[in-house]
From TrEMBL:
Protein name: Polyol transporter 5
Signal peptide residues on this chain, from the entry's feature table: none
Subcellular location: Membrane
GO molecular function ontology, one term from the record: transmembrane transporter activity
Length: 822
């Protein structure tokens, strides 16, 4: 009987919650709930949404309801009017000498005309502002235009200094309304969400900012009951968490917080390593998966010295055998880019992040074991294709998994563990090659098969790690999401805060995507499309059957397209920088015998490279081992810098160094073959190249791409980014040996030095900063148009860099492109 009463009470609570949600359909529509149905229908037809701030009237003459061309035309006229205020004051300066001669006054006295104008411009707006409130903006603009024109004519016909001074002061008086009420035109014409674009600043919004405490409490209570959280999270705790999310970094003012909660909130911004055990299990899985990725890449490095001969191939002299060697080594990258990356989306949809990682680990484990027992190059090629499937799905999932489980402030540090431990895996692969290279007959088989070692702990440990809470939210499993957050955060308050803030931001994110897609489809979203759980368009974005549509939306929806452009840029830059071909500049066989040229690759062919350069096998493997160690060690500084300096800054300060070191290595090939310093200098500059690569273009691309996309497009977006990276790695791996023969060593490295410069420009113009923001707050970052971002970098950042670092003006200031309201 008690159970029946409890069930009835729970049913009543749920009914009340649904009624509350029907009245407040979304966090953004609450203000429209009181409007008449005709008014709401008009707003939906005109704007496609009720999420408007402020809410306009139902009159087409309301400036908020104007078409975009009219708003922009009005803005241009006001901007031109504002420009005239400074033009009129400055335009007279070149005429001072003529004025002093015509009016019979000194040059200094003539210059006072501009001083008087500036003084009037400072005080006249105090008159125009109340006048505009009383009579409206339009009469003021008309009076301003006519008055300024008449007074300018008066200045032109003045025959005395006093008349000229009076006319100039009147001109300033009449032209000054732009200063007084110009910004009001933006405020009274554009909605709050659009004002930042037209005022030159992009605002990072907190969607809870405009809610009163009562509204917030009502919506949190409804959220808790609707999503089945009543038996999992205390309402008081969830209310408190929502208030912390609303307050941002001013949480200290919330009196209800306990000392433990306050300390935990302070620590999450200052103490990188103060995280709960379950979070470190997540990071361990990320690190092991990354080490497996790196080991898989280098297992064939040492084996390249032996397996061609074992299969009766001679790539040193037979052209066809050179292509076989290249294709076998490139096979994992072609398979990863063509298949492995793309199956990660449906795998993530059905099995979650952990299931996809387990699947990829199975392929990585079985394929390298199979490669060790192959009897011909075709079998080896097939096994390496299977390896590519595991590598592709793993690379597209693990960084996303780490990003979704990490706290926002240190997300970059934790997600970059992917590339850091890829570098460590490369080092381990080189170490394994060195350990078994002397084993007769089967040494190359051991080198290929040794990569199974890190796959075993990954297969076991992944099931101890918590699933991504955002994946659970995507599946509408809020209790499970809360349980994951409890394991990933230090105190329950942080879990409650993050759960509610994720929900609000994801709801906003999906409304935006659904509205834009509806607009592209020529329809408007109806009132029933209010929340992520109720919006058919948004809900469909998550379904596996919508995979192709979501892929198309990578290039059609503006917010997603900008993330695609930025992530593609950083991924392409990793191949453009030359890391996978830095040792590809082969030391021609004439270093040893004057015979035919041979082209080999470093990360893949470095051992062969140094054997060709008169080094014995042990020395060649030691050099490769040293390169792998350098790649890992010099990535360590980025653990801290990626969240302090930022992703974009790390890229921009390291690309010039990579360009210069590749160019220097290329010029070293002009040193005569007989000079023993030749190889030492080439090796030195290529190691120095790795020093620049490791903290910048090494860790940033996968970190950046894993966080740039909205939740609805995160898997397919990451798949695209990783596929782009691996596809071009495969292309370089296959064709660059022949390209190097055509260009020569200096030409090849010079080409990549130039590509480094091109990549620098692309990153400077197209890649915005993402550090220290929640994944959902990045919607505000990518809401800014690429065109405006480029213009800001060219017109604001470049002049500031010139003043600060060339002219050494320490006081030079730069206006920020983004303003945070959280």
């Amino acid at each position: 009987m008690a159970g029946t009463v409890d069930d009835e009470k729970a049913g009543e609570d749920r009914k009340e919650a649904m009624q509350a949600l029907a009245h407040h359909s979304t966090l953004l529509d609450d203000g429209a709930a009181h409007l008449p149905p005709e008014h709401r229908e008009y707003l939906l037809q005109r704007h496609g949404t009720l999420a408007l701030d402020p809410l306009p009237s139902a009159d087409p003459a309301d400036p908020y309801n104007w078409p975009s061309w009219k708003k922009n035309a009005n803005l241009v006229l006001v901007a031109f009017h504002a420009m005239m205020t400074t033009f009129i004051a400055a335009g007279i300066i070149p005429a001072f000498e003529a004025i002093s001669e015509d009016l019979g006054c000194s040059l200094q006295r003539a210059s006072y005309l501009t001083s008087m104008q500036i003084a009037v411009l400072g005080y006249a707006p105090l008159f125009w502002k109340p006048v505009s409130y009383r009579y409206g903006r339009r009469p003021v603009w008309l009076l301003s235009t006519v008055g300024a024109a008449v007074c300018n004519v008066g200045c032109a016909v003045s025959h005395s200094y006093a008349a000229m001074a009076a006319c100039r002061c009147l001109v300033s008086f009449f032209i000054s309304p732009a200063i007084a009420i110009g910004s009001g035109v933006v405020v009274e014409t554009f909605f709050k969400k659009d004002r930042g674009r037209h005022m030159g600043v992009w605002t990072i919004e907190n969607p809870l900012d405009n809610l009163t405490l009562e509204e917030l409490e009502e919506q949190v209570a409804a959220f808790r009951l609707k999503y089945g959280l009543a038996n999992f999270v205390d309402e008081e705790l969830l209310q408190k968490g929502a208030r912390v999310a609303q307050s941002g970094r001013t949480f200290e003012a919330i009196e209800e917080l306990t000392p433990e909660e306050l300390q935990a909130l302070r620590d999450e911004h200052t103490r990188l390593f103060k995280q709960p055990p379950a979070f470190w299990i997540t990071i361990c899985c990320t690190c092991i998966a990354a080490a497996l990725q790196g080991w898989d890449q280098t297992g064939s490095n040492g084996a390249n010295l032996e397996w061609p001969a074992a299969f009766d191939l001679n790539p040193n002299t037979v052209t066809g055998d050179v292509w076989i060697l290249g294709v076998v080594n490139a096979a994992p990258y072609f398979a990863a880019s063509m298949l492995g990356c793309w199956i990660s989306d449906p795998l993530n949809n059905y099995t979650g992040r952990r299931g996809t990682i387990f699947f990829s680990a199975v392929f990585c484990f079985s394929s390298v074991i199979g490669a060790a027992f192959t009897q011909n190059w075709v079998q080896l090629f097939f096994c390496r294709c299977l390896l590519g499937i595991g590598m592709g799905s793993k690379a597209a999932t693990v960084p996303v998994y780490a990003a979704e489980n990490s706290p926002a402030f240190f997300r970059g540090s934790f997600v970059m563990s992917w590339q850091l431990w890829v570098a460590f895996g490369i080092f381990l692969g080189f170490s394994a090659n060195l350990a078994v290279y002397q084993v007769p007959r089967i040494g190359w088989r051991l080198q290929l098969g040794s990569a199974f070692i890190p796959a075993i702990p990954l297969l076991i440990l992944i099931w101890w790690a918590p699933e991504s809470p955002r994946w659970y939210i995507k599946k509408n499993c809020y209790p499970q999401a809360y349980n994951s957050l409890l394991r990933l955060r230090n105190v329950p308050l942080q879990a409650a805060r993050d759960l509610y803030y994720m929900h609000v931001q994801i709801e906003l994110e999906n409304r935006m995507l659904a509205a834009e897609q509806a607009a592209r489809d020529g329809r408007r979203p109806g009132e029933e499309e209010a929340t992520v759980s109720r919006t058919p368009v948004a809900r469909d974005l998550y379904k596996a059957k919508m995979y192709v549509r979501r892929f198309v939306q990578l290039f059609t929806i503006a917010r997603v397209r900008r993330a695609t452009l930025a992530s593609t840029t950083v991924m392409l830059a990793q191949q453009m920088c030359g890391i996978n071909v830095s040792f590809l500049a082969q030391l021609r066989r004439r270093l040893r015998s004057g015979g035919a040229n041979a082209s080999k690759i470093v990360i893949f062919y470095s051992a062969t490279l140094f054997v060709d350069a008169k080094a014995d096998t042990r020395t060649a493997l030691l050099v490769s081992w040293g390169f792998g160690l350098a790649n890992f060690v010099f990535a360590l500084p980025a653990v801290h810098q990626i969240d302090t300096l930022g992703r974009r800054t790390l890229l921009l300060i390291t690309f010039p160094g990579m360009a210069l070191t590749l160019l220097a290595a290329g010029f070293c090939f002009y040193i005569p073959d007989t000079n023993e310093a030749r190889l030492d200098l080439i090796t030195f500059f290529l190691f120095l190249f790795a020093v620049f690569y490791s903290p910048g273009e090494g860790p940033v691309p996968f970190t950046y791409s894993s966080e740039a996309f909205p939740l609805s497009h995160r898997e397919v977006g990451m798949s695209w980014a990783v596929a782009t990276n691996l596809f071009w790695a495969a292309i370089l791996n296959t064709v660059f040996p022949r390209l190097t023969d055509a260009l020569g060593n200096t030409g090849a490295l010079g080409l990549f030095a130039g590509l480094n410069v091109l990549a620098f420009v692309m990153i400077f113009l197209w890649v915005p900063e993402t550090k220290q923001r929640t994944l959902e707050e990045l919607d505000s970052i990518f809401k800014a148009s690429t065109r405006k971002h480029m213009r800001y970098q060219v017109t604001v950042t470049l002049p500031w860099l010139w003043k600060r670092y060339v002219l050494l003006q320490k006081g030079a200031e730069r206006e920020s492109f983004y303003v945070s309201r959280r």
